[in-house]
Every structure is written in structure tokens, then in C-alpha cells.
Design a protein that fits this description.
Length: about 475
């Protein structure tokens, strides 16, 4: 049996239902689970033969209560290299900070989607696991829900953002594509808030976070006795959102049969709950997002072409952070301001050595990973400014860097030359300058026009001539 098939997990939990669920989920991934119900048994277990074979610990904060961080410290003192994930119902950033400082590897808010729990567990225990600042952190600072809070001046990003802001004011379906962590969920929520249906019924569903056997009822609803265990009528999200908006994140994870049913609903405008003899007429707008390129999924017969056509009346792509190098400095400073406002943390500046390091990394986890890295660094920073030394794993990955170099992302503005060394056309440079100004002044078009030294009507004419979407 492979080594990965024999990993041993200790679950500290006194809730039988949750213990059974976690044990079953872990078993699917090749884990064997020891369940202990109190702190004393957990500490004693570390000294046993099985305890010496542990690969990870999951701790439900409810068991030790207010002393959860004390238990984490005790466990870490005995087994420093052992990853510890804490489950909690508290969304308090203060508790997240205290748990991390005590030695928690990750911090997860209940109820936790099964795939999120196992992703965090497997990531924390994989071979050559990254150090703390590159670990996934499920607990995030609450995101603001307007377009002004989305930071960035990169041309492709600003064009996508402006198009989203303009489209939000309509009633058509929208599909947002982009890698995980690029900000799709935040953009979906901003579009919902700016929509003319914002005050109508709405619901946000993450397809990847719903158990596979529950997705059909969650979307379409069901009648009593429609299937074993269906004791009551459930109104599905589609019917609930009649006249409003249904937001579907990770739509690429919807099963084939449900894709066909959803395509039928959008085509016919009628939803039929499971077990119902008749359907209901609905008018629902769908804002959706996918981590994977949908055209590729359709080409591989993994996604219904009719559904893609219906959902993709407007399609918007968010670029990965590695293609937005010029935005890293602004994003980092923005996150540090928000991190500094959290209980138990303080405002920190960012040294050039840190900016160089952040700018040189390719950020496979995108903007979400950048926020996590900065949050972890801020938790453990003892100085007034984050330097390269506060990111030891990044330093190890990227090697020696010149601390006196101008940070790459600060040096990038508007590119004047093509790759072959020739000047770019004036029209392209002018378009980039206008996009840069729109991003810098967060879409305040009067301010953009004033700073560029042109009239507002001239600015709008240029936007039209250059084919630049705008959010104003």
C-alpha cells in the first residue's frame, strides 16, 4: 500500500455526526481517523504508538472552548511539525490570529464544504509542504462588495472590470471565467449589488461546496416524498429567485444531467421541482463563474453547449495575477491596510525588499494567495515594516535578490516599446494611459478627465474611438 494511503488523522471532536462525516470524508482520501472527545485524551494520544504515526490533527474549537489556543500550543510543543487545522463557528479575525500564533496551520469556518476541508487537510500534509505563509487559509477577511474595492490598473483587468460594471446594470445572464483566486466571487457579488435586481430575491450557491446528492434539490427544489428522506417540500434556488438573481459559483462543477435540466429551464422559463406534477414560470437572472475555460469543457463534452450558450450572453475573463505584475504593489498595500484594521493586528508598511520578492513570484493561487501570504506575514511580524525576511518560503523559492532594486511592479507603467524594440502605435499608448487613469482614480471619470487635462466629453469620445469600455 502506498504511503499516502496510510496517513493517520486525529480528530478532536465530541459531536458524533460531525465525527462520522469527517471520518468518512477522510477515508475517501486514504486517511484513517482516530476520534478523541477531549483535550486530555488528545494530549495523551500523542505519546502512544498510534500518536507517533499521526500525519495531522483536526481540532473542533468547541471541545476546549476558550482554551483552544492553549491546546494548540500544547500539541505543537509536543509535536512541532504536526499540522493542526481548527474548525470553528466563529468568524472572528481575532480568534484566527490567536490560533495561528498558537501554531494552527489553517482555520476553517463551520459549516465547511467537504472539498474545502479535504483540500486544506491534503495541502497541509503533502510532501514538501510549503511553509506557513504559502499554506491555504480558508478564513478570509470579509470582502467589500463594490467595484471601487477591486484594485488594479492592468489593462486587461480594468477592461474586464469596466465591462462587468456596465453589464451589471442589465438583466442578461453573465459568465465570469478565470483561475481560482482571481476575484470572481468578489466580482459576482459586486455585480449583484449594482444590479437593478439587487433588492429582489437572490441567492448565492457555490456548486463545489454542495454535496453532489443535494445539488438537484438546492437548485430545483423537491416535493414531499419525491425521494427517500424528502419529508417536506423544499423550494429550490431557481424558484426562490423568481424576479431576482441566482449567483452560481463554480458552475463548471455541475453534473451533466443537471446541466441539461438547467439549460431547459433557461430556454423554457419553467422550473419543475423533483417529484412535482407541474412546473413554475420563473424570471431569473443568473450570474455564474467558472474556474476552467468553458469552451474547452464543451469541446471535451464535459459541459452542455446549450447551457454555455444560455449562460454566456456576456462572458468576462479575469486575468491571473501573474499577468498583472504592475498591480501587485497596490494590491499588497490595500490588503495590508485592511489586515491592519483587524483585531489583534496593526498597520504595517512594505519594504522594497518585500515588494521585490512579491513581484518576482508567479502566484499560482492568484489574489487570494497574495492576501493569505500577507495575512500570515503580518500575524508573525515583530517590526514596523514587512521585509523579505518575513517571507522565508518565498525567499527560499526565489533565491537571493537585490534589496536595492526598484520593485518590478513599481517600475512598470505604460509600455512604450514592442518586443522587437520599436515604438508602439500612439493610439495603443493613449488607450493604455486612459485605462491606467481609470484604474488609478477608480472609475471617477470627472477626476480622470481633470488629471489627463481634457474635458469629460473629450474623454468619452476617446473611450468610444479607442473601443474602451467604461464603468461610468
Amino acid at each position: 500500500m502506498a504511503e499516502d494511503d496510510t496517513r493517520l488523522l486525529m480528530l478532536i471532536d465530541d459531536e458524533p455526526a460531525q465525527s462520522r462525516l469527517v471520518t468518512a470524508l477522510a477515508a475517501r482520501e486514504g486517511w484513517r481517523t482516530i476520534v478523541v472527545k477531549d483535550s486530555e485524551t488528545a494530549i495523551a494520544t500523542l505519546g502512544t504508538r498510534e500518536g507517533m504515526q499521526l500525519s495531522a490533527i483536526i481540532l473542533d474549537q468547541w471541545v476546549p472552548g476558550d482554551d483552544a489556543c492553549g491546546l494548540i500550543e500544547e500539541l505543537k510543543s509536543r509535536r512541532p511539525a504536526l499540522p493542526i487545522l481548527m474548525l470553528t463557528t466563529s468568524a472572528s479575525p481575532q480568534l484566527a490570529v490567536e490560533a495561528m500564533r498558537a501554531g494552527a496551520t489553517d482555520y476553517l469556518i463551520k459549516p465547511v464544504a467537504p472539498d474545502r476541508l479535504m483540500t486544506a487537510l491534503n495541502s497541509a500534509t503533502r510532501k514538501e509542504a510549503p511553509r506557513d505563509e504559502l499554506q491555504p487559509l480558508t478564513e478570509k477577511i470579509d470582502a467589500e462588495l463594490d467595484f471601487d474595492s477591486m484594485i488594479g490598473t492592468a489593462a486587461e483587468f480594468r477592461t474586464s472590470l469596466a465591462r462587468a460594471a456596465k453589464t451589471a446594470r442589465g438583466h442578461g445572464h453573465v459568465l465570469i471565467e478565470g483561475e481560482s483566486g482571481t476575484g470572481k466571487e468578489m466580482l459576482l457579488r459586486a455585480m449583484l449589488a449594482a444590479s437593478p435586481r439587487a433588492k429582489a430575491p437572490n441567492r448565492f450557491l457555490n456548486i463545489g461546496g454542495i454535496p453532489a446528492n443535494s445539488i438537484e434539490s438546492a437548485l430545483f427544489g423537491h416535493e414531499p416524498d419525491a425521494f427517500p428522506g424528502a419529508f417536506d417540500r423544499q423550494i429550490g434556488a431557481i424558484q426562490f429567485c423568481d424576479s431576482g438573481t441566482l449567483v452560481l459559483d463554480e458552475i463548471d462543477r455541475l453534473g451533466p444531467g443537471l446541466q441539461t435540466r438547467l439549460a431547459d429551464v433557461l430556454t423554457e422559463g419553467i422550473v419543475r421541482p423533483v417529484g412535482a406534477a407541474h412546473g413554475f414560470k420563473v424570471d431569473v437572472r443568473i450570474l455564474s463563474a467558472s474556474n476552467l475555460p468553458m469552451d474547452d469543457l464543451v469541446a471535451g463534452e464535459q459541459f452542455d453547449a446549450r447551457l454555455l450558450e444560455a449562460l454566456g450572453a456576456t462572458r468576462i475573463t479575469l486575468p491571473p495575477l501573474r499577468e498583472r505584475g504592475s498591480d501587485i504593489a497596490a494590491l499588497a498595500r490595500h490588503f495590508l491596510v485592511r489586515i491592519g484594521e483587524q483585531p489583534g493586528l496593526r498597520h504595517l508598511s512594505l519594504a522594497d525588499s518585500a515588494l521585490n520578492l512579491l513581484g518576482a513570484y508567479d502566484w499560482p493561487g492568484n489574489v487570494r494567495q497574495l492576501q493569505t501570504v500577507l495575512f500570515r506575514a503580518a500575524v508573525f511580524c515583530e517590526g514596523e515594516s514587512l521585509t523579505a525576511s518575513d517571507f522565508p518560503q518565498l525567499s527560499e523559492l526565489l533565491g537571493e535578490m537585490d534589496e536595492n532594486a526598484v520593485p518590478l511592479q513599481e517600475a512598470i507603467g505604460v509600455m512604450l516599446y514592442t518586443e522587437d524594440g520599436n515604438l508602439r502605435p500612439l493610439e495603443e499608448i493613449e488607450a493604455d494611459v486612459i485605462r491606467l487613469a481609470i484604474g488609478h482614480y477608480r472609475g471617477r471619470m470627472t477626476e480622470v478627465a481633470r488629471r489627463l487635462g481634457i474635458g469629460r466629453s473629450t474623454l468619452y469620445r476617446k473611450l468610444s474611438d479607442l473601443g474602451i469600455d467604461n464603468a461610468a
